[in-house]
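note to self: dont lose this again. the chain is below, predicted strucutre after it. 264 aa total, dont forget to put it in the shared folder this time
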Amino acid sequence: VGGCRDVAQIIRKADKLESAETLTDYFAFLRITCTIDRFLLMARQVSDKLKGVVETRPGTKMARPEDLVRLYDIILQNYADLKGIVSIEREGEFYKGIDGNTLFYRALRCFYIAECHLGQSNWINAIVLYDKCKEHVSEALSSTANNMEVQGELNTLSKQIYSQRCSAHASAFLHSQEEAEELEDMKPAQKNRLLKDCLDEFRLFETADELPTIYTFPPDFQTIPCKPIFFDISLNHIGFPDLSNRVEKEGGALSGLSRWIWGR
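---
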């Protein structure tokens, strides 16, 4: 690829060659076709890893649908550059084949974009993209009627689109049912909430029954500690410590003081 690019630059500088433009287009064609083949091989390797045909080695990066989207973007850009070569006949079969391959890889790119949305649980976007991908497949089938290899791959892709779209549709339905159940579970709790508990929330109320309760009256009963029934009697059963020794000492000191006062 690099050699073709260098030769094309040399030919452009050589003004004495009569067929300089044709040679430049030829080497540009070789460079673009080699680039397309290289990225197709890379896309096939990533696709095999996604399907589980090839195991991912430990320590290597996991394959993702985003990788294939990027690779098919590059392939489509190279096909656009290939159509820009002046020497290619616009009405020939080769030019029509470029259009058919462009539609085919555009359908593959759209399919893996839908796979990205499916992996992120964006089921509605995935369903729309699968429908768009189906349109690309129909256009590619009509444009590549003579290419049996591409026709077989398009039929396989059509089956994958159908299965993945059904999976996305089922997931979206289950998710909507779960959200409906969560809303049903939340309605009674929100209906009985007090106004002071939801002052920091913005909510739109469709009916008067959904308005929060300002205060419950009469208030609910609460348990409070009360005086024991046998409080006075229980005091008789309390055992106090023995302070007889301390009482005698205090009594002796008091008698000595009284004797000093009265002069006894």
